[in-house]
Each structure stands twice: as C-alpha cells, then as structure tokens.
Design brief:
heterodimer, A: 7-stranded mixed beta sheet, 4-stranded antiparallel beta sheet, about 0% helix, B: 5-stranded antiparallel beta sheet, about 55% strand
Chain lengths: ~120, ~110
C-alpha cells in the first residue's frame, strides 16, 4: 500500500514570495490533515478535510494561508505571502475516517525555509 | 495553552535497559492517546495507542500506561535498542472532535 506522498521535500523562498505544497493521501482515506511543525515543537493542526469539505481550519492563518482538496483526493496548501516565521516542516496526514480513533498516516513532510 | 506536555526534551538510555517516556495532559475530555515515533527527514509513524477505558496497552517491546486521575501517560520500551533512537510524540484526542493534539516531543537516544 502506497503511503502519503508530499512534494516538494524542500523549499527555500524569500519572504513575501508565494509557495505551494502538494499532498496525495493514502487511497481511500477520506480525512486529510495539514500540520505545521516548527523546530522543537510538536505538529500543530492547520486544517482538516473530510472528503473535500473543511472540518476544522480554526488555526489556519487565513490572511496568508489557503488550502483546498479538490475531488476529495489530493490537496494543496498555499502560503501567500510568506513570512520568516513560516519556516517549518509542513506535514500532511490521512486517516480512513474522521475523529480521533483512527491511526494517522503521515507523509515525509516539506521543509520550508523562508529567508 | 499547551494541552499535551512532554516535559523531558531528551533522554539517553543504555541498550537493553528500559526507556520510559512521559506525557501529561490537561484536558479531561481527551479519551484516546497515541504515541508516534519520528526519524529525521521522515514523517511521524504510529507506534501504539490507548483508549481511556484501559489503563495499559502492550505491543511487543512497547507498553503504554494511562493514569487518568493524574492525567498522565507513559511509554515503556523494553529492552531498548539503538534503532529506537528517534523523537517520540504523544498525541491526544477527544470523542466528538476531530483533532489530534501533539506534545512537543522527547528525543530518545539509545546508547550501544
């Protein structure tokens, strides 16, 4: 079974530039999560999708971050414009269903450096 | 507001000995807890979980203990192996929500 795929693996941009990350979850997984992990901290949920609908985006900085999940499969997370404090690893995860009783499968992450 | 805390940022253990990683939580609504292991440049991988209706769950060398009254859980690894060297995150979730709240992680180093 293929795991969660993410690209790119690494990205370096200057502040005020835009960047987009892509995630392909495990086939059949209805729930998709985007996390931000700043160095030395645990993953922080940015947004959660159930199929192509948003379940929770309460911690997504909506003035600069956006995410979509078209057709309930792949997802993209965009930052526009980027700030220095956005430097982090962006993790995508998926589960079979919603709620906290499902094991999350994580992708390898995208390490973003904003200079 | 850090609802899930791992107060030890790092831990070193001799190979063959027991590793004990601790996690505390503040939200009494949490009823499902998970441990993840993370190697450098990889995403976290699921290790073991426990529901609040239990106080212990075992899977091979890994055992998770839950003390609901103390709002505390721990992960025991016996015997520890060099391949266990990684960052370990605990995470918690509450029924009716869809969120997993993660701790800050503990870096375990198992010395050969």
């Amino acid at each position: 079974e293929a795991g969660v795929a993410q690209s790119p693996r690494y990205k370096i941009i200057e502040k005020r530039q835009s960047v987009a990350f892509w995630c392909n979850p495990i086939s059949g997984h209805a729930t998709l999560y985007w996390y931000q992990q700043i160095l030395g901290q645990g993953p922080k949920l940015l947004i959660q999708f159930q199929n192509n609908g948003v379940v929770d985006d309460s911690q997504l900085p909506k003035d600069r971050f956006s995410a979509e999940r078209l057709k309930g499969v792949d997802s993209t997370l965009k930052i526009q414009p980027a700030k220095l404090e956005d430097s982090a690893v962006y993790l995508c995860a998926s589960t079979q269903g919603p709620g906290g009783f499902y094991e999350q499968y994580f992708g390898p992450g995208t390490r973003l450096t904003v200079t | 507001d850090q609802q899930v805390k791992q107060n030890s940022p790092s831990l070193s253990v001799q190979e063959g000995r027991i590793s004990i990683l601790n996690c505390d939580y503040t939200n009494s609504m949490f009823d499902y807890f998970l441990w993840y292991k993370k190697y450098p440049a990889e995403g976290p991988t699921f290790l073991i979980s426990i529901s609040s209706i239990k106080d212990k769950n075992e899977d091979g060398r890994f055992t998770v203990f839950l003390n609901k009254s103390a709002k505390h859980l721990s992960l025991h690894i016996v015997p520890s192996q060099p391949g266990d060297s990684a960052v370990y995150f605990c995470a918690a979730s509450a029924s009716g929500t869809y969120k997993y709240i993660f701790g800050t992680g503990t870096r375990l180093k198992v010395l050969a």
